[in-house]
User: What shape does this take?
Amino acid sequence: MAPVDWQQNWRAGATPWDAGASPPALRSLVDRGAVPSGRILVPGCGTGYDLATLARTDREVVGIDLSEDARKAFFVAHPELPGSVVYEVADFFSYTPADGFDFVWDYTFFCALDPGQRTSWNEAMRRLVNPGGVLATLLFPFEDPISGTQGPPWPVNTSMVRSYVDGGFEELETAEVNRTHPGREGKERLVLWRRGA
Assistant: This one.
């Protein structure tokens, strides 16, 4: 299977993954105070709805995506936000910011990666998340057990992701997601991981 040309998809407007808003699970995390102040990263941020949801005066929110078209769409949709919000066109795997992050939000990013990139995803997360920081993974499409092999999005489950973060992160919380975007009901699980020292 040929790799997905994400930039071409954005140029062509072929973005079926774009739900038009942040997932309710992220808004719930924000509302219950589970997202810290400090530096926040959203890889594969697309149109940047999650950047807007996370934006606050005591946070520096950074989104990265491969597509300049997605970046342009973000600034059209969100011309003014509180705090510091930065959108960079960059490759997640070679992204080397000056400072690490206190919280990373991964939704429809891990599942969009070719399975051969998962070890590199783990290595990058261990490099980017500060010791004691939190990696929040909203797993989609969740299948337990995994029966399909077609993607992206590639079916995932907690055990699979755990096999990649073991040794670097401690599992803090795992929860079924009751409210989600239409069509994704029963297909999401939220797992929070704390980066070790």
Notes: The longest strand covers residues 129-139. Residues 20-195 form a domain with the Rossmann fold fold (CATH 3.40.50.150). The mean pLDDT is 91.
